Amino acid sequence: MVTDHHYYPLEVEIANYLANEWSVPVLLGIFAAVCASIVIGTVVIIDKTHPNLPKGEKAAIWWFVICEYFPSIPQFFNFRAGAIHLFFEGYFSLNHTRMGPAQDLFGQLWKEYAFSDSRYLTSDPFVLCMETVTAFTWGPICFVVAFFITNSHPLRHPLQIIVCVGQIYGLILYYATSMFDHYYAQITYSRPEFLYFWGYYFFMNFIWMVFPGILLVSSVRTIARTFQALDKLTAAKSNGKANGHANGHAKKTI
Length: 254
Prior knowledge:
This protein is mostly helical. The chain contains seven helices and no strands.
């Protein structure tokens, strides 16, 4: 176990820890390039196969596809909705015991993010379980929702609500468990610098509150309008049948 590092708490033990070989600009540059290639590829494919799809629907597809590819640097590089869930967070779930010495791209990205939350280097039970569920449940569902958007599938909005609620709920627990330890157990997982706490830990993760929140409200409103229209249609048919029976009875009486 290694304690000679710059993570908080400073005395936390990290198994076989090795400092990153690549600089932060290099890591971020590679990650940004991969994300950009996925976004551009998705945009091109959607524009060619579904040119008449509304811009809002296309944006939702981009979000869910990205979420699926990089499922995990918890949200530091939270560019993530589907791509992030399945691959990035999936990487962490499968390799959590070897994060300390990892020198591959995702491993070094996680170690950079861990300056804002060292739990990712210690196989913390909550973080591991939360990221595993996120990667292998919300990740695949994000891809399904993205596909359902393209063909207006009736299950699109129910599934979109489920995955958005799951993302928001997971983020709330992520914040809450860390803050609980900070205020009640006096254990701090993030370095105090602005970049790490407000940039990595808070802002990048908060993206998973904003976009899923917008999509959640949109789906709820769509379902509400649909049921409202259905109720009106049902009521109109019932009134029509009632009037028909009344007119028929009146004719017989005459």
